[in-house]
Prior knowledge:
Elements: H1 4-13, E1 37-41, E2 44-51, E3 56-60, H2 71-77, E4 82-86, H3 103-117, E5 123-129, H4 132-141, E6 146-154, H5 163-172, H6 175-184, H7 186-194, H8 203-210, H9 216-231, H10 233-242, E7 251-256, H11 260-264, H12 266-273, E8 278-282, H13 289-292, H14 294-311
Parallel strand pairs: 3-4, 3-5, 5-6, 6-7, 7-8
Antiparallel strand pairs: 1-2, 2-4
Amino acid sequence: MPTINKAFAEELSGTTRPGNDSRPAWISETRFPFPSRFVGIEDARLHYVDEGAGPTLLFLHGSPMWSFMFRHSIRVLRARFRCVAVDMPGLGLSKAPVACGRQFERNSAYYRKFVQQLDLRDLTLIAHATAAPSALRMIIDEQRRAAGVVITNSFAWSMRAFPPMWRFVRVVSSRPFRVLNERLNLLPRLTTRIGRNSGRFSETECAAILGPYRQRDARRHLGSLLYGLRAEVAFFEVLRSDLPKLRTTPLLLLYGIKDHGYQAGFLEEWKRVLPEASVTLLQKSGHFAPEDEPQPFTAALSEWLGQCSASQPSASLQGLSG
């Protein structure tokens, strides 16, 4: 297995594997050399990458990113693990109808069908930001498939109990803001300017982040997620009440502390709901920890996975055979 340091040296030097000529030109085969795969799920076509062999890691990104965000971790961890990273329905290279008013609920159904169709077992979920509510709903409903859960700068509840965040949600979920964002691509553009706490994104990285939003449908999906933060109250209430079901599953809270959600108290809420969870703080990371500190993020994830592997046998798969 390459060491963490060696793998990141290769990333910076431009070492690549054969790419996919059919992909959009804004995807750098140097930075994202993993072959694209697609799977049909009901009325959606989900894009994913599937690298390496071994215990399965399922990476689910938040908005406005896509699986590109996990490129550093995949490059390193594929030597020991099967790394599956899925683009959120409607974002990245995935295509799906907009489900305004129930986007989080709909995404959880897509994720559930995805793990069933690929028959992913003993999987460790790594869920970020707006992917986490849908991903956690999925993993609670498919808990017999779960070997572990990693939550990074995420939430799984209504923002109403967090006044600073609720004020933000009320603005970005409003119709005027969503229309403006759809026309001007505000949030993705803002992400490329200030989304990385550790410095600016490169021109190639900006192209990869903004590329999917050349399509207006992707902007509509982003608006649907924003609206869901306010509209899907019942979904979030049920999810929040079901979180204790995860207490028997190994858990890691892997958090960048220079994030508004962290400062609003999200990590403390996670610790109240899931007191058994391990906690690792990334001191220089903001909301997009895999981008801010890719090496410490990946090293912390790798160390925790090793501890889980050493401390307990594989999760039971009773009921999954046949």
